[in-house]
Give the backbone structure.
Amino acid sequence: MARTGMAIPVLVVDGLPLAEAAARAGLQFIPAENGSALEFAHKLVASGKADACVAGAVYTTGDVLRSALRNIGLAPNVRSASSAFYMVSPPGADVNEVLTFTDCAVIPYPTAENLADIAIAAAEDRRLIVGDEPLVALLSFSTLGSAKGASVDLVRDAIRIIRERAPDLAVDGELQGDAALAPTVAARKSPSSPVAGRANVLVFPSLDAGNIAYKLVQRVGGAQAVGPILQGFAFPVSDLSRGADREDIINVAAIAALQSAGRAGHRAP
């Protein structure tokens, strides 16, 4: 990453063997003080001595989340942390080049308030990471009253909360997946929707739905899945799979750098 100019990577190490190995490899590093490398790295971000933290290759998602909540905390007006995958469509796909899928890794059974947090945080991060205007669709098996059920009511409640908290956000729901993405379907099912047929942020009603969807789109549809990207924290915090390879780490670190650059004006001097 240093060679590309994206960021200055600093490895936080929690033992002499790792410090010696980092020194031999010519890596810039900082020894952790009074605790684990993860906790110390998050404290560096909280204090402004680092701009973002990428972790998870040797820690579980639960470890990363708990430490980030203790040491960094949530952004103002956010009540719950969540995650997103950025799905990069294969060439020739008849959808937006990059789609935000959220939440796919953190909240198993979100409440309406959770869904509102997820949608608003995903929209804010999309502006920083992709650079376009977020068009948010809350997904369901129903489109604007075509069916009934508890999960449909949940999504409708979330839409009401989002519109109260973020009145300028382009958002709609409940929408079925095809109504959210396909203009021809949207023209039939939801012609007056401000986002139907061109949504780029897809908010799933449960972790089951989101996790299954991103893996199917990745494995069957051939999309590249970048993430999970944690969202809702006061400063950029990233999580990696413990099976992450070098490309995964670089991609997530690049997104953390974009998040940090976009939020630079919000950090107190």
About this structure: Residues 46 and 72 are 5 Å apart (CA to CA).
